[in-house]
Design a protein that fits this description.
- The structure holds 2 protein chains of 2 kinds.
- By secondary structure, chain A is mainly alpha-helical.
- Chain A contains 16 helices and 8 strands.
- Chain A has a domain at 27-286: Up-down Bundle (Cytochrome Bc1 Complex, Chain C), CATH 1.20.810.10.
- A two-stranded antiparallel ribbon of chain A has the order 1-4.
- In chain A, α7 (159-173) packs antiparallel against α8 (179-187).
- The two termini of chain A are 50 Å apart.
- By secondary structure, chain B is an alpha+beta fold.
- In chain B, a hairpin with a 6-residue loop joins β7 (216-218) and β8.
- In chain B, 36% of the residues are buried.
- Classes of the chains: A mainly alpha, B alpha+beta.
- At the A-B interface, α5, α7, α8, α9 and β4 of A face α2 and β1 of B.
Chain lengths: 457, 281
């Protein structure tokens, strides 16, 4: 094979063979939950590939033009050059629409995979010493992914995303003392401005991807340096890593997963319509569509705005506008607690030791209960972000639905906290009492239809 | 079926998918065909590799030792000596001055960011409405009270500013006897016509829905609901302030004209909104 002389040639100049050999022999624990972060990584690859294609056709320009493409309902209407370019990409560029839809689906799955990966890390305590730094990098990556999502979502300059930008502007302007100045800097003046589309474009295709990809590289480098944490399965201790070598088993598995992830995204992008901007129409500052929901990961923020009571305090001549608390303070606290969690937990439990073995969620009832309560807040707020749609589904007035959710946002997380804590405690205590070893339980179905446990052999 | 046959079959699916994709591209197939073709090409290959990994590669379980990361004191000591670093710590004042200079330079380099936007100035306090301006619809036609159908809503602008976002206004005609406007505003509603800013006082969306029977304006973004008969006071949802009302009268030609700008800032709140600038208006 020609590859070997080539590799020798490179090695004689860079001396990488020993390093590469060590890398290929690296041991990875074999567990499906360790692949969640990989799914996010592969979505990012799909996003970059499809995104480059889209960039070649997109025009970041808010100048008005007259639409004259094949989509009859909009013909003759005044639209922005940005909207026009996305219409052309969708209807006239071969493979343009499938690329756009795969890109959008990949963005949704990207954020979803990051969130599920984060939940796995949280509930198994993988963020504990020595992995606090990578937890911080991970939170940064989540924020960058959200920023990518929101900036990209707004680029087509359609009516729905324009409404989203308007709400963001109103939330920024609500920040005491600096809000109006900050909003005017970001948007280039009072909303709506012609500057914002080209600014979002610069962020979406240049600044944010550079930070995101750089952050991913740091995330992976730290992972390789620190080695994987692992579940307390057979042979695993705090001093070792039990698993299979990177080459060939893990390389094959991960490559297969990467291509299958892309296949699922291709299927979604081909078969399930997403963000049909021709149905929403171009942005117009005096029009709004109903119902209007953002992409899934931003729904909870909109839900918080919808549920918050109409409180606008003016004291000493300073007004705290109503969107400030749900729109700025609440997500600020949520991300703040999430960011500091490893340090808060270490401080609260006094546990500053290194942990290479992962917890089962039941072994840390308080942490698990906090996590479940946080998730329930997210779920209820997301439902609230679609309170008009939910009200339609259940055929109740939207006012009643909102009031139900206002109660639920307080009651359900508290209830979830209590129930989760009790379940974890009991599961844990029962196991402690019976002295069972960790591991799975084998069940046999009895003739009577019940189940009995098979004694481990 | 054994695993190597499975791999072969999956790869055949992948090749077929890729070839189909070429045909679909050349003849200009639908987005659905493109998606399915690509999914087959990728899915076949991914499946083949995963079967290969799971069934045909028998990798042994291996154990790798971990090692501690903290650098030992001996190693750090070696780095610290004979490097010239002590020349920095000896000149403490200069080092501190350097840190201060770096900080000031850094702050200075941020300055160009302020070129990105104008100062808010009076923009958030003023719209285009001025005394004597006619109310016109999106087609730039002035409006007489008689042109309006009772309980219908129309989006209007100041004459000469059609489409201007901060000046969009809702004009509604109701029965004058139903109106219960706040005190001092009875003259603002000639022949039962009332006009309110269309920009929601919560998050700035156009208040686009009108429930005519109940005389309620509803913002579709966050469901803030305003009572048209009582000065657009919010009765439900997150909005805390009424939609500002446009003072207006009927001019000599019988058209609706503004008596001035909105008395308060329109749209979403901001921290100094109660400090209207004294100039102009």
């Amino acid at each position: 094979m020609a590859a070997e002389p080539m590799l020798t040639w490179i090695d004689e100049r860079l001396g990488l063979a020993a390093w590469a050999r060590a890398g290929l022999r690296k041991v990875f624990p074999d567990h499906w939950s360790f692949l969640l972060g990989e799914v996010a990584l592969f979505c990012l690859v799909v996003l970059v590939l499809t995104g480059v294609f889209l960039t070649l056709f997109y025009v970041p320009d808010a100048t008005s033009v007259t639409y004259s493409g094949p989509w009859a309902p909009l013909r003759g209407q005044s639209v922005s050059a940005a909207f026009d370019s996305v219409m052309r990409l969708s209807f006239e560029v071969r493979a343009g629409l499938v690329m756009r839809q795969i890109h959008h689906w990949a963005a949704l799955v990207f954020v979803a995979a990051i969130v599920v990966h984060l939940l796995r890390i949280f509930f198994t305590g993988a963020f504990r010493r020595p992995r606090e730094i990578n937890w911080l990098v991970g939170i940064g990556l989540l924020l960058l992914a959200l920023a990518m999502g929101i900036t990209g979502y707004s680029l087509p300059d359609d009516l729905l995303s324009g409404t989203g930008l308007r709400v963001i502007y109103s939330v920024v302007i609500a920040i005491p003392f600096i809000g109006p100045y900050l909003a005017f800097l970001v948007f280039g003046g009072e909303f709506p401005t012609t500057e914002i589309v080209s600014r979002l474009f610069v962020f979406h295709v240049m600044l944010l991807p550079a930070l995101l990809i750089g952050g991913v590289l740091v995330h992976l480098a730290i992972l390789v340096r620190q080695k994987h944490s692992q579940y307390a399965l057979a042979g695993a201790t705090e001093e070792n890593v039990v698993g299979r070598a990177f080459w060939p088993s893990q390389v094959f598995k991960s490559t297969g997963l990467a291509i299958l992830t892309a296949a699922v995204l291709a299927l979604l992008g081909g078969l399930i319509q997403i963000n049909p901007i021709w149905a929403y129409g171009p942005f117009d500052a005096t029009t709004v569509s109903s119902p209007a929901q953002p992409d899934w990961y931003a729904g909870w923020l909109d839900g918080a705005l919808r549920l918050f009571p109409p409180i606008e305090i003016t004291a000493l001549g300073i007004t705290i506008p109503s969107p400030f608390i749900p729109g700025v303070l609440l997500p600020g606290i949520a991300f703040g607690v999430m960011t500091l969690w490893p340090f808060l937990e270490a401080w609260a439990t006094g546990d500053h030791a290194e942990h290479q073995l992962l917890d089962g969620p039941r072994e840390r009832p308080l942490r698990t209960a906090f996590g479940v309560a946080g998730l329930l807040v997210f779920v209820i707020l997301t439902l609230a972000g679609g309170n008009d749609v939910v009200a339609l589904v259940f055929a109740v007035p939207v006012e009643a639905m909102t009031n139900i959710l206002r109660v639920a946002i307080v009651a359900v997380p508290l209830l979830g906290f209590g129930i989760t804590y009790r379940i974890c405690r009991e599961l844990y205590d029962r196991r402690e009492a019976t002295g069972e070893r960790r591991g799975s339980v084998r069940l046999r179905r009895t003739a009577a239809g019940g189940f009995e446990e098979i004694e481990p052999d | 079926m054994n695993a190597s046959r499975g791999v072969g079959l999956a790869l055949a699916v992948s090749i077929a998918g890729s070839l189909a994709l070429v045909v679909i591209y050349v003849v200009g197939g639908s987005v659905q065909q493109q998606g399915i073709g690509l999914a087959l090409a990728l899915g076949g290959m991914g499946t083949a590799i995963v079967i290969w990994a799971v069934a045909l590669i028998d990798a042994p379980i291996e154990i790798e030792e971990r090692h501690s990361f903290a650098t030992s004191r001996e190693e750090t000591a070696v780095v610290d000596s004979r490097t010239g670093a002590e020349e920095i710590s000896r000149r403490r004042f200069l080092a501190q001055l350097l840190a201060v200079a770096v900080g000031i330079l850094g702050a200075t380099l941020v300055l160009p960011a302020f070129s990105l936007g104008p100062q808010p100035g009076t923009d958030l306090f003023r719209t285009a409405w001025r005394r004597g301006m006619r109310l016109v619809d999106a087609g730039n036609r002035p409006i007489r009270p008689d042109d309006l159908v009772a309980d219908s809503v129309r989006t209007v602008f100041p004459e000469g500013f059609v489409g201007r976002p901060d000046s969009q206004t809702l004009l509604i005609k109701v029965s004058p006897s139903d109106l219960a406007l706040p005190s001092g505003r009875s003259a603002w509603a000639p022949e039962g016509c009332v006009a309110y800013s269309k920009v929601c006082t919560h998050a700035g969306c156009p208040v686009g829905l009108y429930r005519a029977k109940e005389h309620l304006l509803l913002c579709p973004c966050h469901q803030s609901t305003f009572d048209v008969l009582r000065g657009a006071t919010p009765i439900f949802g997150p909005a805390a302030r009424p939609l500002p009302q446009l003072p207006m009268e009927v001019d000599a030609d019988g058209y609706l004209v503004a008596l001035g700008d909105f008395p308060e800032p329109i749209g979403p709140g901001f921290w100094d909104m109660t400090h209207a600038p004294a100039d102009g208006g």
